[in-house]
Amino acid sequence: MAARSPLINVMIAAAQKAARGLIRDFGEVEQLQVSRKGPSDFVSTADRKAERTLRRELVKARPNYALLMEESGETAGADVSNRWIVDPLDGTTNFLHGIPHFAVSVALERDRQLLAGVVYDPVKDEMFWAEKGQGAYLNGRRLRVSGRRELDDSLFATGIPFKGVRDHEAFLKQLGAVMAVSAGVRRLGAAALDLAYVAAGRYEGYWETGLQPWDTAAGIVLVREAGGYVTTLEGGPDMLATGSILAANDQLHGTLGKTLRAGA
Ligand code: 2AM
Ligand code: CA
User: Fold this and answer.
1) 87-99 pLDDT, tens per residue?
2) How much distance in Å is there from the Cα of 193 to the middle of ligand 2?
């Protein structure tokens, strides 16, 4: 069993507590699917409740840290070097539709560097966690990105743009380029888990644009600590600021980037 630092223990405990509420609410969502209006108000409430739980737990453990959270935005802290970056419910559309693939994502940024990340999928009870310099883990098992080096054996994940956002034409070109040379492309709808799956060697790589910092902050630490590379689609370092992400194993990061850019 891997030794967890006090910091990781705080993050895991907070994610687990929020996830307990989400699982209860997910049971209700499955019942509400048949109503005409659907469960959307109920899901917004579940999401906000999970965020309140995370805020309470994280503030209790580290009272001075700043927070950036999906629902409530930025909260300044007396400690200017530490900031939690939190998504209480990543994969909201899945949750809303009764699809059991969503996660709680918690990252810590210190002096503007991502230091630790936890991504918890409560349905599968998969706790992904990583701390800079300490490796990435799934529950108690050390993670390593996949060793596949050929595109035609490789499975990739992405996010498909939807109504009202992003450049659909550019995405279709990227997808066309990757589907033509790979073993397949998946779209499971939770960015934090897509990154965790790259860290776990389940996918060789993942790309998406139009994301928010809380979608990717924890997952970036996971991929790096599992030996993978993370950049923007263009190969730059500003994933959180641009919302553009390209994560892959060390063998294929460059090749995936070239394939995507040639497609665009
Ligand atoms: P969410 O479930 O927390 O909204 C799906 O492609 C991924 O994009 C999910 O991780 C989703 O996070 C994220 N995403 C970011 N911005 C979004 C938006 N405006 N609408 C829907 N999904 C968004
Ligand atoms: Ca999200």
Assistant:
1) 999 999 999 999 9
2) 10
